[in-house]
Design brief:
The chain has about 400 residues and is of the alpha/beta class. It contains nine helices and 16 strands. The strands form four sheets. Strands 1-2-4-3-5-16-6-15 form an eight-stranded mixed beta sheet, with helices on both faces. It has a four-stranded antiparallel beta sheet with strand order 10-12-8-13, covered by helices on one side.
Length: about 400
């Protein structure tokens, strides 16, 4: 069966390159993936899948029913949205849309999902249950997975697989990770309220900007002294709003940031920990404060069995020297984790780096580029893992 899947992937490889380049040239932002969704639906329909559009606003579901009597459903999820970045790759098929680019590889993910559907549709007689392909919108704003789940995308799903490009490893390689793959990502707002005054008489005011700077510094210092260094926490303040004029002491400052963590126990304690530090600093200088902590998406925690299945399938397909067990998680976030609250699953890393280049630009870079030979690697890995899922899961 592996040889058959590889032959099918080689046959459709030129078409997959066309699909990827079309999607790359026509990127759409989160929640606006109308043309991409229509294109995806057309490819799925032409491959014989049952297609449902408008799932999770602009998402698409394609279902493939195998010939067996197994009632379980294996989901395969890929995402479709692009980023608000001006492309500077210089590629012939670069983005035609000003200020929007597929800089995170979602064009590749979508292509891998379509290629997998095209292959599995041709070997449906070897599949015992149902495969549900989820083409998700709005991953970049961490909302699309929740939209899809709310519309029933995970109903009765018994397992789910996902893929994400990884420019740090060369094309032709696969990376798997047991346990934590990505971090939980939470939103933080801190409001410091002081008292306004003349810039020449700071002793008559309570300087919210200065106190805000103390809050930022104290939070960063406290992480290294009060948080377990084996359980990483990253707190970044990315936006500061405050002040009215250069010679007026600000009476109010808003800090906006993100908090990343890997361990659920650590994450649960972070809101109280942050508030205690903010309260201590503000009380010291007579300011008032408000802390708003909003839990976002949880950490992706890969299921052991499905990760092992991915690893063994990839090793059989490509050889153990081309399959890496990644030693470290990423502190980036992925709303694939939302699906894992409904079903066990695993996401693998697809190497897309050029072997002969000194620099492979990272994700979200305006010059991000992938070695397109990786697409077949991703399709074969996903399709063969799905085939073996039905052979081994009881």
């Amino acid at each position: 069966m592996l040889s058959r899947i590889k032959d099918l992937a080689t046959t459709i490889a030129p078409r997959l390159i066309e699909i990827r380049r079309h999607i790359h040239s026509h990127p759409e932002l989160s929640g606006q993936e109308y043309q991409t969704a229509a294109f995806v639906a057309g490819v799925l329909s032409s491959s014989g899948l049952h297609v449902q559009e408008g799932v999770g606003k602009t998402g698409v579901i394609g279902e493939l029913q195998g010939t067996g009597e197994d009632k379980r459903i294996l989901a395969i999820r890929t995402d479709m949205d692009a980023l608000p970045i001006q492309e500077r790759s210089g590629l012939e098929f670069a983005s035609r849309i000003e200020g929007i680019m597929h800089a995170c590889g979602h064009d590749v993910h979508t292509t891998v999902g379509l290629g997998t559907a095209m292959i599995l549709a041709q070997i449906a007689e070897e599949i015992s249950g149902k495969v549900r392909f989820l083409f998700q919108p709005a991953e970049e704003i961490a909302q699309g997975a929740s939209w899809m789940v709310a519309d029933g995308a995970m109903d009765q799903v018994s397992g789910i697989l996902g893929v994400h490009v990884f420019p740090s490893i060369p094309a032709g390689s696969i990376g798997v990770r047991y346990g934590a793959l990505t971090a939980a990502a939470d939103d933080l707002e801190i409001i410091i309220m002081g008292e306004s005054g003349h810039g020449a008489r700071p002793h008559e005011a309570i300087d919210a900007i200065w106190i805000a700077s103390q809050v930022i510094t104290t939070l960063q210092q406290a992480i290294s002294r009060t948080q377990n260094p084996l359980r990483p926490v990253v707190l970044s303040i990315g936006k500061i709003n405050g002040g009215r004029a250069p010679n007026i002491i600000a009476d109010k400052v808003q800090l906006l940031g993100t908090v990343r963590s890997l361990h659920p126990e650590t994450r649960a304690n972070l809101p109280n920990w942050i508030e205690r530090i903010v309260a201590s600093v503000c009380n010291s200088y007579g300011a008032k404060y408000q802390v708003n902590y909003r839990q976002g998406i949880p950490s992706v925690q890969n299921d052991y069995f499905l990760t092992q299945l991915l690893q063994s399938s990839a090793e059989e397909a490509w050889g153990s020297d081309r399959v890496q067990v990644l030693p470290e998680p990423s502190l980036g976030a992925e709303d694939f984790s939302v699906y894992l609250e409904r079903s066990p699953g695993s996401m693998f890393r697809l190497g897309v780096g050029f072997k002969d280049r000194v620099i492979n630009y990272p994700l979200h870079h305006p010059q991000f580029e992938i070695d397109e030979s990786a697409i077949v690697t991703g399709v074969v890995t996903m399709a063969y893992t799905a085939y073996r899922y039905w052979q081994q899961v009881s």
